[in-house]
Amino acid sequence: RHFLLCSVCSERTPKYRCPACKIRYCSLGCYKKHKDTCLPVDKPAPSNPETKAAVGTEPWSVDDLLHEDDITDKVPLQRLQMLGQSKELKDLLCNPHLRQLLCSIDGAERKEDAMKSAMQEPLFVEFSDQCLKIVENDAKSSEDADL
């Protein structure tokens, strides 16, 4: 596994990816510096007008959210399932403000904008950091947990 550096400060390993332009960054500070110069990647409009109407009517899977060019960011299902077993995440999710933030992101028409806004909230940053810590756990950490 090769290690990347933050596209903003070039000092640390990036934990995040800009939803608009896909560059990688390591912290909220770097994101704030980056967002002023962010150049969003244009996405082609759906060619089928019925596509939008079908959203939410059929069950979706994790694979539906991923594109082939994002394969480096794909998290194994086993790691995703670890999110549901985390006491720390469950404790954070007891906070009604966090639940409201997550619902507003989920229901947002423009999810990228909703995520940018949520990343301004320290509570949401703490939640996303905790999620990343769980899914990015090295095999060594998993072995330690088994002891």
TrEMBL record:
Assembly, per entry: Thyroid receptor interacting proteins (TRIPs) specifically interact with the ligand binding domain of the thyroid receptor (TR). Requires the presence of thyroid hormone for its interaction. Interacts with NUFIP1. Interacts (via HIT-type zinc finger) with the RUVBL1/RUVBL2 complex in the presence of ADP.
Protein name: Zinc finger HIT domain-containing protein 3
CDD domains: zf-HIT_ZNHIT2-3 (cd23024)
InterPro entries xref list: BCD1, Znf_HIT, ZNHIT3_C
Example of a GO cellular component annotation carried by this entry: pre-snoRNP complex
Main subcellular location of this protein, as a coarse class: cytoplasm
UniProt-listed Gene3D superfamilies: 3.30.60.190
Cell compartment(s), UniProt: Cytoplasm; Nucleus
PROSITE patterns per UniProt: ZF_HIT
